[in-house]
């Protein structure tokens, strides 16, 4: 039976895409969630991140072990968010309404969406580089099209970027079900390219690598420990955005068991395997070419066979597009839709996302260390506080209870109306912990310190949320707060 005291949902907060998931929509099995995490890991950005951790000075095996510890932390966080998202059955911006207020939720949602918009453009640009390398390899005369151009992009760059941009938009116009199918395809298929690349480079290295190889001098014991901790937390921070909005996908799972099984296969098993393979390729490249930081596109360009180059470039382009669709399009589409649900659907939010991804000129952002570190790094560091605040509120303050109907109500006696639609405790916790996290992420000239921005932000945000909520509890409502058996009608 539905709750007779539940308020009527309002179009100010509700549309078909933001509505609670129905049983018929819960089609994401453990395999689909496994593929989702595979798609998340299998990209040029993920590979570059994994091998980039060698720059902190750890040896190959130490880096691999540190990344594994980070993977375990990511696994724990995904279970916490995933189980909550599956139970409540709503996308991230709606889930956040219970914590930040029905209108206050737009703040963390738009912060997450802003980061995703930039990365959507960057990943499309990275995929275009793989395709350009393929085109030039097959038709050398097109190399003349890779110089000059407009707004920092060559003529060939614009053509390929816009072709991939259009293809992704067409795919995504079919909604979340097509996202599931793309994830199921893109996640597994890239293993073909990665394994083939590993075999090729290992053969070049005479089937042996030095697991003790490192970039730079041997570190002291204290420096080794600091670098180890930094790599572990950077692993979590790298996936902090997708972790926060995991409920966008978890809500389509049929059960908590499906969530936990999919997470277990996709994170500790698959992520660890990808890390191992990435380090093997990096150490082999270090031995063969004297540079362990070469990305797969550069390594592929060194293959003599044109056929293999074509196959590898296509696989890496597909992988990058796959992660783009899953991680960098879904989130801002929901987040933008949440601002004005009556006028902006998931598809409309997606179109806005795609247009913005061009406006931000992602190739210039990717080419600017200042932009990556200070803008994306600074805004991205806020994902730690958001995570901590959400977890503390859901598990410790609300005890896993949610009045789903009130997530869509603007009535002043609604459970999540708080003060004019904003929860002061959550907002204060986000501002304070966010400032601290951003300072830790941006000011120190030491990556072993900046890497601590995520755990510091998450712990401080969660702690302040608990403290502020106990000091000044939300005003009592005139209606009893209990979780209804059925979601709000749509």
UniProtKB/TrEMBL annotation:
Its main location: membrane. Gene3D superfamilies: Hydantoin permease (1.10.4160.10). It is a multi-pass membrane protein. The keyword ATP-binding does not apply. Belongs to the purine-cytosine permease (2.A.39) family. This is Permease for cytosine/purines uracil thiamine allantoin. It is found in: Membrane. The chain crosses the membrane at residues 36-58, 65-84, 90-110, 117-136, 156-173, 185-203, 223-244, 265-287, 307-331, 343-366, 372-396, 417-443, 449-469. Keywords: Membrane, Transmembrane, Transmembrane helix. InterPro entries: Pur-cyt_permease (IPR001248), Uracil/uridine/allantoin_perm (IPR045225). GO terms for molecular function: nucleobase transmembrane transporter activity. The keyword Transmembrane helix applies. It comes from the Bacteria. GO terms for cellular component: plasma membrane.
